[in-house]
Amino acid sequence: MTLLLRRVRPEQVRELTLVFILVAVVAFFATQIPNYLAWQTFTDISTGLAIIAVAAVGQTLVVLTRNIDLSIGSVVGLVAYFVGTLLAGTPGMPAPAAFGIAIAMGGALGAVNGVIVAFGRVPAVVATLGTLAIYRVALVELSGAKTVTTDSLPAWLLNLPRMSVVSLGQLDVRPLVLLALAVVIVFQLVLSYLPYGRRLFAIGSNPDAARVAGLPVERDVFVAFLLSGALAGLAGFLFLVRFGNITVVAGQGLELQVVAAVVVGGVNIFGGSGSIVGALAGATLINVLQQSLIRWPAVSAFAQDAILGLLILLAVASDKVILGRLRTIWVQARRRDEERAAATAAEQATHGA
Amino acid sequence: MRIKHSTSLSLLAGLALVASACGGPAAAPSQSPTQAAATPTQAAATATAGGVAKATPGQSVKMMLLPKFLGILPFAQANKGAGDAAAELKNSTALAFVGPTADNSVQGQIEFMTNAATQGYKVVMISNNAGDQIAPAATAAQAAGVKVVAWDSPIPSAKGENLFVAQVDFNEMGKVMADMALSIMGADGGKFAILSASPDAANQNAWIKALNDALKDPKYAKVQLVDTVYGNDQSERSYTQAQALVAKYPDLKVIMAPTTVGIAAAAKAMQDGKMCDKVKVSGLGLPSEMVSYTINGCAPQFALWSFVDLGYLTYYTSYMLATGAIKGTEGEQFEAGRMGTFKITKDPTRSAGLRVLMGPFKIYDKTNVEAEAK
Amino acid sequence: MARDIFRRLVRWEGLLLAILAVIVVVTGIAVPGYLNPQNQINLLELSIEKAIVVLAMTFVIVSGEIDLSIASVMGLSAVLVAWLKEQGVPVEVGIIAALLVGALCGLFNGYWVAVIGLPSLAVTLAGLIGYRGAALLLVGDRSIGGFPEWFNRLGQQPLLGPFPLALMVFAVLLVGATVLLQFSGFGRYAYVVGSSPEVARFSGVRVRRVKLAVFAMSGVVSAFAGVLLLARLGAVRGSTAEGFELDIITMVLLGGVSIFGGSGTMAGVILSILVVLNLRNGLALANATGNTQAGVIGALLILSVLVPNLVAAARSRLGRGGSAEAAVIPKLSDL
């Protein structure tokens, strides 16, 4: 343990503390909820999580640059509605086309945010609070009070959430889940290894320094918003696939869930640090808490939110405490190592003499 | 378990749906207005010389139709009905169909109500989402000469409300839901749960309460209501709540969702989870949204009334009230165009308030849902 | 001369003042009833509780934090007064209890942020869910009304001339908040803490204490606003005041307060409140739906920052009028 700690900086394993908390949460609810540790629970929760996780990946990119994208809930709703209407109108449209249109439309909406923030120099909170309202307005006006109903959607779309990609006994892994997982992995790699990913950290840590150093700050921030929009568009597509019935309130409030996931996942809201995997862990933790609470027989519908608020706070706090503790241990271990090394060196020196 | 479908269009008019298999053939066309008059009649003598008031078309009345929020089908249908009535009555002032956004519904309705007096509206027709919180604003509007007619969802205390145009008898709604649950589960009964809109939707709460009262009847001894959860009229939330209900109660047989958003979401959740042969969905739904689930057996039976008719009747009532053709007092009778004659009575489902009862509503199953969905 | 006038216009408050003037003039001409004094009082009264919380939120954001839990605290305090009344506690006592609970909610938020060092976004997001949950726990699916006559009258009737109590309370709080933020040591600390906590610490400002005080103030003021809302509505449910936080934050930001802390003025904030409320009322009187109102305010929020930025950029490109950066509100354009 200490050996491991000496080599790995606590910041590098900060996602592990979240996983630890997650395991503790699951263990707790397993004692409370009958049949909790069933594959069905896994299937239910993981499929719902897929939508949040994809949106949270985009949000992470934006937050890393010391910005925020609050328009996500409206983008998800608007894309889900638009693509749903499109599919209802042209049932013959091939699946990849619908998929592509969703991403492109989300990307376009994200690009609008990006232009306003990166080139118009409007603070991201202001810009995306504005587009949060405007995109929702567009949805309401576009809808003409019609609902996208499952009936009007093509069969392949309706069958998608019921399909299993991997089916081991009772464990069903839905295509939605695999897709979300792929998105997480790809963007974690982008962030870790591509120059663009590394630049996002630099921009978020210190935008002015990044500018002075000649980084294309405006362009990179723009691209981050574009990607966030495109991923929200993808989330909108998943939303359509999963829920089928799309009304004007679709996705409302999703932005807060996504921001919560990112912040709980340890992405610094002031930019510069965090990871996609962390955001995924945060999204998972919040989702598991929510889904477990509504399955907990001991708790009434009216008590759930009070407990959820408290648990989220506890999760964030214990994450901080555990991380702080690890850092102390690490520092002590390092110091001991150094002392020992110094002692050895001194001994060798005296021997040599 | 075996599901028993009522095999023909069954109309509910005060009579409970028969629990045993086949409901008899429909006795009356669904538009039958006489059903409305067949409500508890009190003090009919106070009516104006027993006469039936008629509207005088062609007057100019500034009227506002204020739904809970804009952008969903039931309210758009009500607007259509109101528009039909406006055309029939040749009101030269256009009907304003305005409303708040879904996330600002309560505050927004209070604002529209307050502004109505400033704008010179004669009538505000409101599907109230603010509960009694709208009462002070409605009372102030009345004081400034605005008539307040509630439809779909009333002001619970009736303060600030001239009339409530009720789609169905709220107590009957409880019986209908109990009957549908029993009919779906069969004589053996079983457990069911309610998936409601939000904890403060006054009409939903009234129906749930009525359902609880109805369940005291020994007829429903084997029907057990185990839980009430809320999906906030969002597909996503309703969907996950339905999933959770099944996980929470492994022997659950029916999810009863008295909300059009909730019932569709719950049906999809059961279908996606391949649980339709175990857990059935019922409640209030729009035929166009439910047709496939009814055909494939996920939601064998559900109920609804016509929102077009509700908008029509509400407009007629409000027009007559604003033009003085009726005064909005108990016992008055009036003719509402194509829908026939209605009577203003005390609202037996609230401690105060006057009511115009539309009723009846329709039970949909696989025999009639397709025709209606078109 | 012309350039000086332009410069002053470009300053945030000047811009807001100009927008407000345009709204008032255009709406005054186009929409009958808008300039009616009763309508002017109505438009303030309909959102007065939000306006009151905006004042407290300004301190929070100036000091570099955010409080998303305000609307939930408003709801909780309103519910608490009603619930206590049901338990037989007089409303007067209930109000004091609600204010205390509001202060506790604020201090609770402040503790995790200032003492433990968690991000305020996370803490108050948990508060948003948790305090609302506490309100739901108390009332469930019920609605509580039937308050004493004096309480309803205070909330629903004019108190002095045509002015209801809440409007006068707001006026007093506005003066108080302005003095506190712009002319007191505490206000200066809030700015310093917001612009740079390190600088604040080195210059002897007790950062923790300032932040705790700011959050406690936010809690108390929200609770107070919740009580006023209760008196105006005469009834309460679990969802009372739900979703108010976005409106409130929008008004603060439109007022020129930087989300990163350290800048903004109370004058800008009050102008922003007036702009939003007048615009919304004018649109509503012109029969615009709530959806249109939301869209217009969203667009205004963006354009009010975007247009001056573009103008400044264009000017600097033309090589006139010196540095573009100086012309634009400096803090806002930073990021």
Question: Could you explain the architecture of this structure?
Answer:
The complex is a heterotrimer of chains A (353), B (374) and C (335). With 353 residues, chain A is mainly α. Chain A has 14 helices and 2 strands. Chain A has a domain at 50-252 and 269-274. In chain A, 74% of the residues lie in helices and 2% in strands. In chain A, strand 1 and strand 2 (171-173) form a beta hairpin. In chain A, helix 3 runs parallel beside helix 8 and helix 5 runs antiparallel to helix 11 (217-243). The longest helix of chain A has 49 residues, at 304-352. Chain A starts with a helix and ends with a helix. By secondary structure, chain B is an alpha/beta fold. In chain B, helix 2 (73-89) packs across helix 10 and helix 3 (105-119) packs parallel to helix 4 (135-143). Chain B has a 9-stranded mixed β-sheet, sandwiched between helices. In chain C, a hairpin with a 2-residue loop joins strand 1 (158-160) and strand 2. Chain C starts with a helix and ends with a helix. The model of chain C is unreliable at 321-335 (pLDDT under 50). The interface between A and C is large, with 45 and 50 residues.
